[in-house]
């Protein structure tokens, strides 16, 4: 094997685990009825965090749904 010139940077480190080896989380899609229920629950004084735990989705998804509530309702 030929040696690299001394002024060359070292090769990049190997990537630990490929996409095939890692568990990839399946994307969850909420239906229109579920989105409407999310908005109703938050308007009905249920916290966004509680709704997040109910539907097991990301906080930012709940905030995005609530932000677009006038397009949903």
TrEMBL record:
What are the boundaries of the region Disordered? 1-20
Gene3D superfamilies attached to this UniProt entry: Homeodomain-like
What are the protein's UniProt keywords?
DNA-binding
Classification via Pfam families: CENP-B_N (PF04218)
Q: Which stretches make up the HTH psq-type domain?
A: 25-70
Domain of life per record: Eukaryota
Parts of the chain that traverse the membrane = none
> InterPro entries in the record, alphabetically?
Homeodomain-like_sf (IPR009057), HTH_Psq (IPR007889)
Q: What is this protein called?
A: Putative CENP-B N-terminal DNA-binding domain-containing protein 4
* Taxonomic source organism: Homarus americanus
